[in-house]
Specification:
The protein is an alpha/beta fold. The protein has helices at residues 12-21, 34-39, 51-55, 70-77, 95-107, 136-145, 160-189, 192-202, 208-239, 245-258, 269-281, and strands spanning 5-8, 27-30, 46-47, 60-63, 86-89, 111-117, 129-132, 151-155. The protein has two domains: 5-158, Rossmann fold (3-Layer(aba) Sandwich); 162-288, N-(1-d-carboxylethyl)-l-norvaline Dehydrogenase, domain 2 (Orthogonal Bundle). The chain has an eight-stranded mixed sheet, sandwiched between helices. Helix 7 packs across helix 8 and helix 7 (160-189) crosses helix 9.
Amino acid sequence: MAPRVALIGFGEAGSTFARAGEWAAHAKGWDLLAERRTAMADYQVEAGTDAAAALAGAELALSLVTADQALKAAQDYAPLLPEGALFCDMNSVAPGTKQAAAEAVEAAGASYVDVAVMAPVDKALAVPLLIAGERAAEAETMLRALGFTNTRVVGPEIGQASAIKLCRSVMVKGLEALTAEMVLAASKAGVLDEVLASLDASEKPVSWPTRADYNLDRMLIHGQRRSAEMAEAARMLRDLGIDPLMTDNTVSRQQALGALGISPPPDGLAAKLTVINDRNASGGEESKA
């Protein structure tokens, strides 16, 4: 039997999981935005009249807010959790942030579980999940009962799953930010085709025009959210005694492109570069990127 689940936050991740899971009759939800609470009925999720109503009776709570709100959500909602409930923090934040959130949840009598979502949520319930914490195995059983099919326990310590996620993000999001900087410069210098051809000559699995187009697409759509994630990655590096020179600037690059509001982005690299440069020329945020 699937556990009674409460969704904290009903953005892209929450709605995608709920639609795929068809959790009617055993799912409640809460979001600070009224329009998202209204939309829950379309996904067979009962919207709570308030956070307490949404969390009442929950065996499992899935925290699916933005990275910059993850700690506050844990602290605010921990006192509302039923005793013994599992609080699965699925947000992309630093191990230190998750450990601070765990303190609040554990102090309230519930149990905290560190969950890292390792791919875009458009994979729905097949998205890879890494799970850590003292009750990680129990959380995995419940998540599988909800329909998640690609789960793995990585350890008993809070922060182990998020460390894997954010160390990977340092590379993935950093490459996106470097790609944006490179193609914008090469385009303005009039050497874009030559630069891309040179890169293609040295690496063939995915053509650089395709990669550059894809990376810009991700940043224009998700740059705001990803910048918050990378700020948490920078915190992790500082906690490890590493000066996050590249990661700090990746935060800025992701933020600047996401702030342009180009959604949906146009198809094709040339079209994306044109609209970015047009926004820049008209005083858009890209001038800060």
